[in-house]
């Protein structure tokens, strides 16, 4: 994934629960706080979401290729 400049670039790859996980990753008090930080372009929040999406894609690809032993 290229450099992230906005939430709009990541939205198509988001899934249910991503705001909750980002909140946990950045120690935000709630999913709403994480959502607001993402909407405001907070670098830490955007990096957390980018990492979450990249890791999820990697895990899915690994399992689909049968490398899950």
TrEMBL record:
It comes from the Bacteria. This is Uncharacterized protein. It comes from Empedobacter brevis.
């Amino acid at each position: 994934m290229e450099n992230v400049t906005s939430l709009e670039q990541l939205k198509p790859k988001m899934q249910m629960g991503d705001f909750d996980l980002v909140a946990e990753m950045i120690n935000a008090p709630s999913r709403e706080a994480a959502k607001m930080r993402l909407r405001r372009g907070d670098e830490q929040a955007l990096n957390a979401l980018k990492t979450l999406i990249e890791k999820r894609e990697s895990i899915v690809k690994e399992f689909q290729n049968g490398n899950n032993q």
